[in-house]
Amino acid sequence: MSIFTAFSKLIKSRKPTRLENNLATDVYRNVRAEEKAAEITPLRVLEDANGRTLILQALSNGPTLAFKDMAMQLLGNLFEYTLAKNNAELNIFGATSGDTGSAAEYAMRGKKGIRVFMLSPHKKMSAFQAAQMFSLQRPEYFQYRG
User: Fold this and answer.
1) pLDDT digit string (tens) for 65-113?
2) Candidate list 9, 12, 15, 68, residue with the active-site label
3) pLDDT digits (tens, 9 = 90+) for 7-62
4) Contact 106, 63 (CB under 8 A)
């Protein structure tokens, strides 16, 4: 079940608020609208015995291959939605030595009114993580190695 499906069932169980309706249509649905939930977070049955099923959900199919992508992608849309409703802007300041920074940067990519300032330690990240983070060059991103 996708987040959108679960959220839709929750708000259908009672009269949804206007905010909940807007979130369901403007935010959740658009997180990765071009993909099916089964492709983004596939389920794998590990064990099916004695009437009990053990299922593993893959959470590493985001742009940075980190489980953080799942929440960050939604967070980027929530920020953009809220900022647009309030005609506001947001500066995000962060520090990272791993994949959290690139997950945040990818999640905020193309979001209106958001600028990201990210600090990272010089020569303290893996080559993969550094390449992931510093290859994403956008005018609203400010990356500092110290």
Assistant:
1) 777 877 888 888 888 888 988 999 999 998 888 778 888 888 888 889 9
2) 68
3) 555 555 656 666 666 665 555 555 566 767 677 778 888 888 888 888 888 877 77
4) yes
Query: Residue 75 and residue 47: Cα distance in Å, rounded?
Result: 33
CA distance 8 to 89: 29
CA 138 to chain centre: 18
β-pair type (90-95, 43-49):
unpaired
- For residues 80 and 30, give the distance between their C-alpha atoms in angstroms, rounded to a whole number: 12
Please tell me the distance from the alpha carbon of residue 72 to that of residue 99, in angstroms, as a whole number.
12
Q: Classify 50 as helix, strand or coil.
A: coil
How many Å apart are CA 96 and CA 104, to the nearest integer? 10
Question: Is 111 a known active-site residue?
Answer: no
Detail the DSSP E strand segments found in the chain. Answer: 43-49, 52-57, 90-95, 114-120, 141-145
- What is the distance between the alpha carbons of residues 133 and 102, in angstroms, rounded to a whole number? 5
In single-letter form, the type of residue at position 102 comes to S
